[in-house]
Amino acid sequence: MKWDPAEYLRFSGQRGRPFADLMSRVDAADPSYVVDLGCGPGNLTATLAQRWPGADIEGLDASAEMIERAQAEVGGTERLRFATADLRDWSPRREVDVLLSNATFQWVPGHLDLLASLTATVRPGGWFAFQVPGNFGEPSHTELAAVRSSDRWRPRLADVELATPWVAEPEVYLERLIALGADVDVWETTYVQVLAGEDAVLRWMHGTALRPVLSVLNDTERAAFVEEYAARLRAAYPQRDFGTVLPYRRIFVVAQIGVAQ
Ligand SMILES: C[S@@+](CC[C@H](N)C(=O)[O-])C[C@H]1O[C@@H](n2cnc3c(N)ncnc32)[C@H](O)[C@@H]1O
Asked: For residue 25, how far is its CA from the centre of ligand 1 (angstroms)?
């Protein structure tokens, strides 16, 4: 899927907060090697270089557009590097002290089966932290699926993969990582986000889950699809005097490796 970093960064404040909340629970004092899988435009990865100035930090992402943006805006130092890579094929150059992934595993079907190999890349006592959205039952997603599978659009969009509920419930992550010998901290939060401007939820979705659909449509089809979807979103998320409320559930997992509970 082709990403548009500028579109994605439009809500960088709201998208950045879960990253900060996740990393606040990683108690690594002076890590030497830190890897961010699915680093996107790299703005959040760069905050790690400030927190751990002595660390060697790598941001990896499957999207060439995201990595270009990261290299242009924040990357390129010896200590902070960005590269295109698919996390499913990735292997580290040496043992990792902090492995993290923010808002990415929901794009990776079967990521539960990767937890063992990812955990194995982290040195004993090191950290593996990730965050995934837990909101696939919300109207932002269900209305998208409903429009896509309507009589009008089903034939045209049959092959499109939506960002799907490839996300497990918090307890499943807990059990899997405990079975791998980690000390695990799992929690969930619903951020009651207030978005500014017209059709704010539509603009939010433009940066992520709507992209696979729009990428296969021509301009006329795209406008028609967006109009239908936007009308449903306006009904589900009415714009109010102070903005549009988009509740957003997120699941957080922080595991310290080789330190069984
Ligand atoms: C929602 S963005 C999150 C970006 C960043 N972590 C952040 O929090 O701002 C999801 C990112 O996951 C990347 N991604 C999806 N599947 C991937 C895979 N198999 N390997 C590496 N990156 C992947 C996408 O290219 C995209 O940049």
From this structure: 21
